[in-house]
């Protein structure tokens, strides 16, 4: 369970030292044990650590621009499904 102190933290940018510590903790404890990792990070919650890892630091996450075909798929799917982003993401290649 997150401490009240961590839950009330002000949002701020991650710094390099925090990123390096998060990478080390994920290597040691795996990318599923976010409660423990959050406890070991003195200034971040498990939820925040998971979000940072899954969306920014995980080397398996691609950060390249969408292709024209992918752009068109997203535009058409958004017209049909509105903000159902999980459904739209399922229409794109991995």
UniProtKB/TrEMBL annotation:
CDD domains: SANT (cd00167)
Compartments it resides in: Nucleus
SMART domains: SANT (SM00717)
Biological process according to GO: green leaf volatile biosynthetic process
Main location: nucleus
Segments forming domain HTH myb-type: 6-61, 63-94
Nucleus in keyword set: yes
Domain Myb-like: 6-57
Keyword presence, Plastid: no
GO terms of molecular function: DNA-binding transcription factor activity, RNA polymerase II-specific; RNA polymerase II cis-regulatory region sequence-specific DNA binding
Keywords: Nucleus
A GO cellular component entry from the record: nucleus
Alphabetized SUPFAM superfamilies for the sequence: Homeodomain-like (SSF46689)
Name of this protein: Uncharacterized protein
Protein's organism: Solanum commersonii (Commerson's wild potato)
